[in-house]
Amino acid sequence: MKKLISIIIGILIFSFSSLSYANKKHDDQVYEFYEIAKKHYDKKQYKQAFKLFKKIAEQNDKDPLGKAQYYLGKMYAKGLGVKRNYTEAIKWYKVAATGYNYFGFPAYELGIMYRYGIGVKQDNSQAFKWFLKTSDRIGFIGGLELGSMYENGLGTEQNYGKALKIYEQAHKSSLIKEDKTLIEQKKRSLFDKIIKLNDAIDYYEKKQYKKALKLFTESAEQGSQLAQITIADMYRKGLGTKKDFKQTEKWYKIAAKSGNKKAQKILEDKGIKY
């Protein structure tokens, strides 16, 4: 049986290589080959699927929606039907993610790999770049990651407003009750952060510095970079507390490690590591 399948695959690949893609009939054949490859994949017949996906993927302008390229990247990433190779996985994910038939999931996979350092050096800026490409295409799953990066200032400037907006979009696009519940929890938690931070800013503007410092500290502990750097400034200037340069440096370091560029520059200019 395995021998027969190999013969069939060989015939398909030979036939595929002879196509010129000169007309719609040829395009239809490419889709047929893709469907055959996908069936092999779904049946966990990975070696057969890999051969066909690779043959289709190499015909860049005729890959149906970039899906063969996506599956090829996925198979390299997971070692399905081929030895695991993250370099090849990233290569094919990028081809699929930037092609004219781009459909979202390749960019999401790239975002995950860069976000968590899977087979590549961890890089939040690259992760953010790829997640940004998914937000209007794969709804909930892309929105959850992108919103989280805005919320935590990972790879981009922290922006609670943008994070909340993206969470709301993800909530609307989700059709699964559990997903909606998760997004609602994220929104509620973020909304609480926004209220607390706004209250702190309000007290600060009214020069009620002790109350402001208390709320900024609570916001800072929740991850607000604005709160962290404001606390550093308040200790430096002695607003709502005595001047304390050790506390100033401490909070600049916390903000810098969180990704705040202003805090990073202040410390770098002083030759202080963070």
From TrEMBL:
According to UniProt, the name of this protein is Tetratricopeptide repeat protein
Keywords in alphabetical order? Signal
Q: Which Pfam families match?
A: Sel1
Q: Does the keyword Signal apply?
A: yes
Checking InterPro entries in the record gives: Mitotic_Regulator, Sel1-like, TPR-like_helical_dom_sf
Provide the organism lineage as a comma list.
Bacteria, Pseudomonadati, Pseudomonadota, Gammaproteobacteria, Pasteurellales
Please list which residues make up the signal peptide.
1-22
